[in-house]
Amino acid sequence: MIKVNILHKDELYDKVFKEFENEFKIKKKLCLGLSTGSSPIELYKKFVLAYENGLMDFSNVKTFNLDEYLGLDLENENSYHYFMNKNLFSQVNIQNNNIYFPPTDEKKISEYEKVLEENPIDIQLLGIGGNGHIAFNEPGTSFSSTTRIVDLAEKTIFDNSRFFKHISEVPKKAVTTGLENIMSSKKIILIAIGSNKAEILHKVLKDDQVTEEIPVTILKKHSDVTFYIDEEAAALLK
Ligand code: GLP
Question: So which residues are the catalytic ones?
Answer without folding.
Answer: 67, 131, 133, 138
